[in-house]
Design a protein that fits this description.
182 residues; alpha+beta; seven-stranded mixed beta sheet; 4 helices; 7 strands
Length: 182
């Protein structure tokens, strides 16, 4: 993790990563403590207050474009694996395809993380892929989203270590991709 660009506050790590992707090395990470215009699929907003984990990773994989969706699944797997260690067996942590991570709570399944994968492809060659991640860790979930979203803090009743969770997710994701195709 040599190339990390850190912001206290940014509009969107995803938008910033896309702007610099062409001239940045693979595995460059843009991370922010807060996003003012965080977004998910279909340009839906993503609540990104302080306490959550928000980052985008620039990749230049040597794969065919049809395989890009696998990067989303691999990131989901890294997030699920990391969160399972924290919540133990009390709560099921699952991938909800194509791009969500959900946790079983008393009231049903609620979203704890989302992944947004975007790319630039020329012909049959990938120029870059940006995988954006938002994980609700210690951030307060807005009232209007309480029925569908949850934070790690709500589940465990204690503050999560954002930096440690970030490092673990990235480590699991990078290791998986090195083995396969990066």
């Amino acid at each position: 993790m040599k190339n990390i660009i850190h912001f206290k506050k940014i509009g969107s790590t995803q938008n910033y990563a896309k702007k610099i992707a062409r001239c940045s090395p693979s595995n460059t990470i843009i991370i922010a403590e807060k996003q003012t215009s965080g977004r998910g699929q279909f340009e839906r907003g993503w609540s990104s207050s302080r306490g959550g984990l928000y980052f985008s990773i620039i990749l230049k994989p040597k794969i065919v474009p049809d395989k890009i969706p696998l990067l989303t699944l691999k990131m989901a797997s890294a997030i699920v694996s990391t969160l399972k260690k924290i919540v133990k067996k009390k709560h099921s942590v699952l991938t909800k395809p194509p791009n969500d991570v959900i946790v079983k709570c008393k009231t049903g399944y609620r979203k704890i993380a989302g992944i947004l994968t975007e790319s630039s492809v020329t012909g049959n060659k990938i120029d870059w892929v940006v995988v954006g991640i938002g994980v609700n860790i210690n951030n307060k979930i807005p009232k209007e989203l309480k029925k569908i979203a949850v934070s790690l803090k709500e589940i465990t009743k204690k503050n999560g270590n954002v930096k440690k969770i970030f490092k673990e997710i990235v480590k699991k994701f990078v290791i998986t991709n090195r083995i396969d195709f990066l």
